[in-house]
Amino acid sequence: MPEKWLGPVCVICAAALGLSTGVLYFRHAAPAAGAATSVVADSENNAAPAASVHAPAAQTDNSLRIWPADSRLANGLAITDSHHLIVNDALHDLIDFFLLEQADDDRADQLKLYLRTRLRPPASEEAVLLAEHYVAYMAAHDELLAAQNLNAQNLSASNVDINRIMTWRQQRDQLRQRMLGDQVEQAWYQNDDSQLTQAIDEWRQRAADQEGVAAFARQPRYPVPHWQNSHDEKLHIQYLLGLLQKAVTSFSERSHEGQHWAERYSSYQSDAQTISHDPGLDTSQRNAQLQALRVRLFPTQAERQRAHELGP
């Protein structure tokens, strides 16, 4: 894997709580019974308790150039009362923001600096260690995916090799468990994995039905949904295909897409600020122009919604 990526977790908590919330403690001993504490927020009005701040003078310097504009990312990190890291979706999204949406060659180092600036030890070093494992996982993931000769961009409803995707999925899951650990895998990927399992099972059943093969003779038949409206049926097939495409998308592809998103959003911010401060527009006109701008710059509804939520 190119140098662009630059570069034992034990969880003790109630299983039902960890699985239902996607939040796990990153530590080697049982966490304190106290509740989780968010790290320091960006504004004084939304500041966390001082005990959760890690801001020694040596770490507070001007070399940190990347900072997430999304407050959910900036304020989503969390630690326990004993200052151990809590592995949650916000941490995953933050790491992806640095590694997949930034073009800087030192983005991995910037991520580590950010984590050490925002978290106090030992949570800061636990987060840095996890980030390093994740960088290594990204490289191994793409190498393993390339060996399967699967390409998300070339995947269509007519050429899905569901057995090859199943083989890749098993290899990927084993890689995650080995490099990230079972608990991190559960916290970050459980929902996606559940959706992928359903998509694979349904696709296999549909293929068997089309071929007239009793593929699941020894298993309960997977309940394949059908719609009287052919348009709705096509939309569902596209939804399944999207899940399969997501499963075979490389981090390299995601990085390319993420950096393009960041460029489009930067352009959107500039133009949106001009529209927002135009005294000749009333609220209705301003909103209409902002909506038109999002439609012009962002190809998907999901990207338009994200830009709208981030503002302005």
UniProtKB/TrEMBL annotation:
GO cellular component assignments: plasma membrane
Membrane topology: Single-pass membrane protein
Domain of life: Bacteria
First and last residue of the signal peptide: none
Gene Ontology terms describing biological process: lipid catabolic process; protein folding
Primary location recorded for the protein, binned into one broad class: membrane
Example of a GO MF term: unfolded protein binding
Protein name: Lipase helper protein
Source organism phylogeny: Bacteria, Pseudomonadati, Pseudomonadota, Betaproteobacteria, Burkholderiales
